[in-house]
Amino acid sequence: MIKRPMRPMCAAAIALLAALPAMAQPIEQRDLDRLVSDNLKQIQAARSSIITAISDPGMPVGSRLEASGQLIDPVRSMIESGDENQIVNGLMIAGSIVTPEAIGLIESAYASETQGVRYAAMRALRTTLRILGEQRTPSLQAPEVARQVKAAGEILRNDPDAYVAEGAARALAQGAKMGNDRLASSAEAAFTELAQGASARLKSIDELSEEKHEGVIRIAMMSTFELGRILQGVNRPGPEAVREAGALAGDSLAYVYKRFQNAGRQIGSIDADQKLPLTQLVGSSETLIYYARSALGQSAQQTQLRANFEAGNDRDFNRNILSIIGGTGILTQPPFSLEADRFVASGG
Predict the structure, then answer these.
(1) To bridge 46 with a disulfide, which of 34, 54, 82, 165 should be the other Cys (CB 3.0-4.6 Å)?
(2) Residue 81 lies in a domain
């Protein structure tokens, strides 16, 4: 595990803490005592109580800073303990603190050799981004948030474990939903990182053993679904980010089309246990393209791809999917203008 120096509190934070009137501290001493217990149940009880106390995005900044001051040292001890249960519980708390010191502790676990610790770090980052997105005044500065978004994108692309990569994808999806104007650029960056990272993961699927394909498909399915939901909302990203989402949807459909070709262009020849996730991927990708076209100012109509695939309608599925990813398909034309042979060799 990488150990990084503690981030110093900014002068404004120190001044604010010094000016706080004498009052009950945000974290009860009983919970701090239970946090350093040797009893796992006591630690878990303290963790639940602490998270309840600090996870409200409306918590005043002064109170959040004071809670951070109470928690950072014991949480650091947990994360540096070498015990996986302690580390995971510490990361869960750190995710709800949402201060520079806490994000530094989360970041220290990104390169852990233990899969469960890396996954817990991604869950903690996801929690931090959720709270940040709902705060009136973000308790982390935009450059720090942008740095964490970039790190999550790298983990999505490169972590050897599919569950950790999926955790990074879910953290990015949460970051892409941040509605605070001060974090708008970070939200758009998270949207783009999710689209590009899931696409890169999917393109490398042939390098993996068969049993690892399921995790990659799950990431693509979740990512296309979440990006489509975001494009249905009011906080849409800019055109370039939307095009990246369209590219991911195209790459996802291209993967399904390859499976279709490998089955002799007969949907009925695809194994039944593999057909359901492929059906879901077709549906989420088709929907994402619909909303991406709308976001780019283009009139869009549903293409019935999922219905074709579910019904085993080989001819209509072949025709309709090529109308999207073929050499003259929707995604190769403005406003997407993606390469003609990106999805299908020789443009289909």
Answers:
(1) 34
(2) yes
Whether 218 is covered by a domain: the verdict is no
Query: What domain count does the chain have?
Result: 1
Domain that holds residue 123: 1-137
Nearest to 127 by CA among 57, 28, 59, 67: 57
If DSSP states are collapsed to H, E and C, what string results for the chain?
CCCCCCCCCCHHHHHHHHHCCCCCCCCCHHHHHHHCCCCHHHHHHHHHHHHHHHCCCCCCHHHHHHHHHHHHHHHHHHHCCCCHHHHHHHHHHHHHHCCHHHHHHHHCCCCCCCHHHHHHHHHHHHHHHHHHHHCCCCCCCHHHHHHHHHHHHHHHHHCCCHHHHHHHHHHHHHHHCCCCHHHHHHHHHHHHHHHHHHHHHHHCHHHCCHHHHHHHHHHHHHHHHHHHHHHCCCCCCCHHHHHHHHHHHHHHHHHHHHHHHHCCCCHHHCCHHHHHHHHHHHHHHHHHHHHHHHHCCCCCCCCCHHHHHHHCCHHHHHHHHHHHHCCCCHHHCCCCCCCCCCCCHHHC
194 falls within a domain: no
pLDDT by 10s per residue, the chain, length 348: 544 544 555 554 555 455 444 456 899 999 999 999 999 999 999 999 999 999 999 999 899 999 999 999 999 999 999 999 999 999 999 999 999 999 999 999 999 999 999 999 999 999 999 999 999 999 999 999 999 999 999 999 999 999 999 999 999 999 999 999 999 999 999 999 999 999 999 999 999 888 899 999 999 999 999 999 999 998 899 999 999 999 999 999 999 999 999 999 999 999 999 999 999 999 999 999 999 999 999 988 888 999 999 999 999 999 999 999 999 999 999 999 999 999 998 755
pTM of the full predicted structure? 0.91
Decide if 201 contacts 216 (C-beta within 8 A). yes
